[in-house]
């Protein structure tokens, strides 16, 4: 018997619907209502995402009773499980990551199909986990590469805050972040002063676990954007949270197969390059990768988790009229992910020998 997934109903008045449709790129919310667990409550709703806003199946951001949720269409992912699988993997390896669950979404009585509900990274995220956070920044685009130059170019950034969106904290926290970026880009390589600075301002163990997670799952876009950065209150150090992991497990963000060796074992950003210049940090990172390959990033661990997620939504995907990919492609995704894990393990095992 198939697992049951939640069914949510959105109710948007015609006038507000037209407001949304007039400008799909608007960041403004419109009033609506949502029936959830048998109770209808007022909400605020808007479209979310980048290029996906022009897709026939769009993603939504919903504010309800002081909480924010993201409802991802996962339109480009033929499995519809890559975000969920990735975030659960991060949680298993000790990296803070959003909770997720699949659901069926309806709009004014019309089925929108299978969606992924993703917890927002905000003040409530930290309260729920008992984490003190004094500042929070979203890495909104590839300028959040911890470098001095704009992503993919040789142009210097107009501001070292470029690429970030501040969600929690004040002006001093913003200045502290730009100072952090400036400091990791100045001074000689492998200097004792830079090492002390990194140890004082960055939770290095958490960062290296995040790096390993991004590398193992193969998120090419996850190193210079698609993350949240927060200041951990007890230690006053930066910690990092993954976000937007649809392009993983052997497919890119458009769903195209990209192979298992696309992402280098050290990832791609300035902070990682500076950090791994120190032999002790490289050794720590190598040990983390080796441990994850032995315990967490295995066929025996990953594939059953992928199959369980796939199985839970399979009957609903079959009836989903809005899906982009054929059902036969969807049905082959657990095996696709299995092959990726097998090949990725071989590649990383080889790469860490010379790390």
TrEMBL record:
Keywords: Capsid protein, Virion
Biological source species: Paenibacillus solanacearum
Record-linked InterPro entries: Spore_coat_CotH_CotH2/3/7
Protein name per the record: Inner spore coat protein H
């Amino acid at each position: 018997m198939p697992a049951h997934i939640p069914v949510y109903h959105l109710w948007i008045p015609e006038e507000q619907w037209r407001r949304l449709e007039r400008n799909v790129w608007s960041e403004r919310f419109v009033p609506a209502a949502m029936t959830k667990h048998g109770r209808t409550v007022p909400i605020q709703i808007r479209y979310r995402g980048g290029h996906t806003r022009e897709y026939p199946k769009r993603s939504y951001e919903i504010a309800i009773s002081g909480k924010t949720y993201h409802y991802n269409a996962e339109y480009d992912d033929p499995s519809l499980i890559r975000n969920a699988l990735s975030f659960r993997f991060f949680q298993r390896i000790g990296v803070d990551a959003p909770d997720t669950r699949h659901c069926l979404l309806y709009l004014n009585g019309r089925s929108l199909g299978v969606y992924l509900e993703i917890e927002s990274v905000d003040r409530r995220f930290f309260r729920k986990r008992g984490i003190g956070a004094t500042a929070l920044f979203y890495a909104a685009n590839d300028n959040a590469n911890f470098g001095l130059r704009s992503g993919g170019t040789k142009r210097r950034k107009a501001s070292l805050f470029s690429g970030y969106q501040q969600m929690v904290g004040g002006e001093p926290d913003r200045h502290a972040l730009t100072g952090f970026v400036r400091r990791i880009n100045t001074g000689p390589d492998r200097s004792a002063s830079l090492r002390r600075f990194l140890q004082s301002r960055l939770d290095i163990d958490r960062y290296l676990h995040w790096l390993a997670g991004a590398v193992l799952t193969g998120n090419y876009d996850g190193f210079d954007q698609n993350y949240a950065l927060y200041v951990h209150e007890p230690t006053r150090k930066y910690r990092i949270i993954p976000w937007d992991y649809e392009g993983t497990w052997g497919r890119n963000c458009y769903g195209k197969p990209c192979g298992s060796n696309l992402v280098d074992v050290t990832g791609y950003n300035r902070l990682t390059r500076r950090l791994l210049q120190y032999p002790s940090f490289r050794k720590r990172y190598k040990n983390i990768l080796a441990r994850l390959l032995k315990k967490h990033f295995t066929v025996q661990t990953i594939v059953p988790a992928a199959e369980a997620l796939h199985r839970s939504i399979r009957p609903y995907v079959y009836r989903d009229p809005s899906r982009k990919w054929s059902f036969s492609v969807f049905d082959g995704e657990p095996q696709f992910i299995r092959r990726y894990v097998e090949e990725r393990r071989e590649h990383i095992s080889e790469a860490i020998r010379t790390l």
